[in-house]
Every structure is written in structure tokens, then in C-alpha cells.
Here is the input.
Amino acid sequence: KSKNPSSNVVLWEEKLSWSNPLISGENEHRMGEKPLQFVLNELIQTEKDYVKDLGIVVEGFMKRIEEKGVPDDMKGKDKIVFGNIHQIYDWHRDFFVGELEKCLDDHEHLPELFIKHERRLHMYVVYCQNKPKSEFIVAEYDTYFDGIQQDIQSRLSISDFLIKPIQRITKYQLLLKDFLKYSSKAGMDCEQIEKAVGLMSQVPKLCNDMMNLGRLQGFEVSFVGLHNDMCCTHYDMCGVL
Here is the structure.
């Protein structure tokens, strides 16, 4: 077995290349077409970067933890740290990034893609509800996770990576709003794009609500624990009296 703990870790180091489609002179008269292409290129490139980051979590951090094992008092908690990020990674890597690339040849496919898979994107809501519990465990075992970071030679911490799904689900609505703006300038039918923007504005709001709910649930657990401790202390004091 290799002595180098990072030797078995696949960190998605190969660069994913993409090319900018050339816009023909005949189409350049359509106002907004070049910015549209720019938005699409940014969406696709940032999606590839995002998949690469998720790969570091799954193939890097999670794999190394499985190899190394966790402290006895942390057993079971490691699953809470990552939530459903493996599911998110698989879907984006195996399906969504490829579908986004198809939009370079067919702009109308973009809003259809987000509308059709809006329910699938609700896996981010599940991720966000779990996030406060995840943050608590990472903070509790920060020394352990720092060691994992060093093992896989990652520049970023586990917390830096675990925030990325939340940043990504917010980024979609911003890019779609840009796409809507330039589609309107290009004289395109914007009905489906407006619908996609509406849907992708709701998902981050729901994610935020679920994170707040997760924090409240954590607070309630802490409060119950504190209440029980106070009751025990009161009982002990009464016993002394």
C-alpha cells in the first residue's frame, strides 16, 4: 500500500477544455447575440469548475476519510458533514454539464433545461437544511479535518468546499437573469426564460429558509440540553439543602 496518502486520491486535475463558438458575420446584426454567447460560455465554464470542486470533496476528502477512519466519538457524524453532496456531484458530472454544453448550439434549450429539472435541483434544499449541522461538526473536529486537508494536499479547507453548492445554486439565477436581459435585446421570445428565472429565484430562497430551519433545530436541541442541565443542577442543589 502506498505510503503517500494522496496517491490514491483523484483530484480532477486534468483541465477540461472548451471552445468559444464563432459567431458568423450574418448573425452579428442581432443585438445581444455576442453577450448571450458570453453568458453561456461563463455558465458552462463555471459549471466545469464547480464539478471539479465537487470532485475534490468526493474523491479527495471523502475518500481519504474512508481510508483513514474517524475518531471513535466522531463515528456516524462524518456522514452528516457531507450530506447529499455525492448525489449532487454525480448528477452534475454525469448529466447537467453535458446538457449545458448543448445550449451552445441551441439557446432555447437553456430555459427548458432548468424548467424540466427544477424538481431535481431541490436536492440543494436537502443539502442546505443539513448545512448547519455539518458546520457544527466541522468546527468541533477542526484539527482532524485540517489533517485530511494536508493529506490530500488541498489548498482550500473542507469548509471552503462545502459552501460551494450554496454559492452555485445562487449563481444560476444571476446568470439566467443576464441571459434574459440579452435575449430580450436580441429580440428573442423570453417567455420560457422568464419562467426559468422565476423558478431559479425560488430555489435559493427555499434553500435559505431550510438553512435557517436547520439552525433553529440545532438551537432547540442545544436549548433542551441546557434546560436538562439546569434541572439536574437545581435537583442537586435541592438535595444538598
In short: Confidence is low (pLDDT under 50) at residues 6-29, 221-227, 230-241. The first helix runs from residue 33 to 68. The two ends are 63 Å apart (CA to CA).
